[in-house]
TrEMBL record:
Pfam families listed in its UniProt record: RVT_1 (PF00078)
Protein name per its UniProtKB record: Reverse transcriptase domain-containing protein
Lineage top rank: taxon: Eukaryota
Span of domain Reverse transcriptase: 240-442
Xref: InterPro entries: DNA/RNA_pol_sf, RT_dom
Source organism: Salmo trutta (Brown trout)
Signal peptide (from-to): none
Length: 442
């Protein structure tokens, strides 16, 4: 059995918005609350109103998700087809069999046409987005992942993920100095974040995909719809976090979903899974507010690694491939031989050392409330692993940045920025895409 909300489609956004606003204090009173109290007050209001207007009920679990190209017209056609089949099985008349075969042929043709139209639209929509285009092709060419095996539990995964990171960290050379050598002070600095206007907050709310995770009090698409009515509260909450340099505790929780690395791998082996953090929609909205100002500062002052093609606007796997290819062509033009070494960091995001990352941010001129916000974002985090119908006990996250977060990719690229100077000091050229590094020796 699964839990569902049967009247979700009929729920009026205006009714939900009115219920939420009636349970919240005035916008003026809300603006004076601490980030922790303000966030818990808002989330409690969202959850209570939604549960009251759209209560949960149970129904049998669906064996597989419905096909995305199956619209109301095809469903009606399928219903008629099943009725014709039942009639023929009851009467066994040749006329009823012919009618059933005719409907079956028409339905099959309609499904094929709808499926072709669906994927044609997806290909056109993702033509300028290589990641989405690759994901679409992958879904067509690769078999779907097998169902989750019952032999594994949520505790198996949480213990495995924790042990894997601990083993990697214990293999690092012990050092009491994680701050690194002193660096020359930069002429630029980011000491605080600028408060955002309601219009800017509204754009942040609608900027990302409205994905919903179990930590969200209401569906994210519904929150987007009513965000205009809640804008004074969202603006106060986000700006209070930015100015205080503090991330509310409720936004530091993650629900981790084990994801099979490849559909062909053994699903009963925990080593074949990687953790993906599912974060609440509002926490990712807050991260976008910080990401925008961090990215602007880093870009304007040319502080990003030019040899990193991951996580950067206007860059992709294509630019990484072009850079490596050009390095080989240049070497060949100069009659030089070349060697390429491909490196991949194991559990790269999960092993980020917080002290080294914070030290790197200081070296890049990030200080004050801007630095304190990142420190708050990294500390006090916790996660639970969800598997099948079970959830593990919470575990503290003392290292790494969450995979699936908005800020994680930028923080990781800054964390590994010093790797470039180390590589160059040994006479090698390099290029990076996310946590994949290509070393070029000519």
């Amino acid at each position: 059995m699964v839990l569902r909300r049967p009247n979700l489609r009929s729920l009026s956004p205006a009714t939900l918005s009115s219920s939420i606003l009636s349970s919240l204090p005035s916008a003026q009173t809300f603006s004076n609350l601490s980030p922790d109290f303000a966030s818990s007050t808002l989330l409690s209001s969202l959850s209570a109103s939604f549960d009251f207007l759209c209560p949960l009920s149970s129904r049998p679990a669906r064996s597989s998700p419905p096909a995305p190209w199956l619209d109301d017209s095809l469903r009606a056609h399928r219903t008629g087809l099943r009725a014709a089949e039942r009639k023929w099985r009851k009467t066994r008349l040749p006329a009823d069999l012919a009618s059933f075969h005719s409907l079956l042929s028409t339905f099959s043709s309609s499904v094929s046409a709808a499926k072709a139209t669906f994927y044609h639209s997806k290909f056109q929509a993702s033509a300028s987005n290589p990641r989405k285009l690759f994901a679409t092709f992958s879904s067509l060419l690769n078999p779907p992942p097998p169902p989750p095996p019952s032999s594994l539990t949520a505790d198996d995964f949480v213990n495995h993920f924790e042990k894997k990171v601990d083993d990697i960290r214990s293999s690092f050379a012990k050092s009491s100095d994680t701050a690194g050598p002193a660096h020359t002070a930069l002429p630029c600095a980011l000491t605080s974040f600028s408060p955002l206007s309601p219009d800017e907050i509204s754009r942040l709310v609608t900027a990302g995909r409205p994905t919903t995770c179990p930590l969200d009090p209401i569906p994210s698409s519904l929150l987007e719809t009513i965000s205009g009515d809640l804008l004074p509260y969202l603006t106060s909450l986000i700006n209070s976090s930015l100015t205080a340099g503090y991330v509310p505790s409720v936004f530091k929780r993650a629900r981790v979903a084990p994801l099979l690395k490849k559909p062909t791998l053994d699903p009963s082996d925990v080593n074949n899974y990687r953790p993906v953090s599912l974060l609440s929609f509002l926490s990712k909205t807050l991260e976008r507010a910080v990401l925008g100002q961090h990215s602007c500062y880093l870009s304007q002052n040319d502080l990003l690694d030019p040899n990193q093609s991951g996580f950067k606007t206007g860059h992709s796997t294509e630019t990484a491939l072009l850079c490596v290819t050009e390095a080989f062509r240049t070497a060949k033009a100069n009659s030089l031989s070349s060697a390429l070494i491909l490196l991949d960091l194991s559990a790269a995001f999960d092993t980020v050392n917080h002290q080294i990352l914070l030290s790197t941010l200081s070296e890049l001129g990030i200080s004050g409330a801007a630095h304190a916000w990142i420190a708050s974002y990294l500390t006090g985090r916790s996660y639970q692993v969800a598997w099948r119908e079970a959830v593990s006990a919470p575990r503290a996250l003392t290292t790494g940045v969450p995979q699936g977060s908005v800020l994680g990719p930028l923080l990781f690229s800054l964390y590994t920025k010093s790797l470039g100077s180390v590589i160059s000091s040994h006479g090698l050229s390099y290029h990076c895409y996310a946590d994949d590094t290509q070393l070029i020796f000519s």
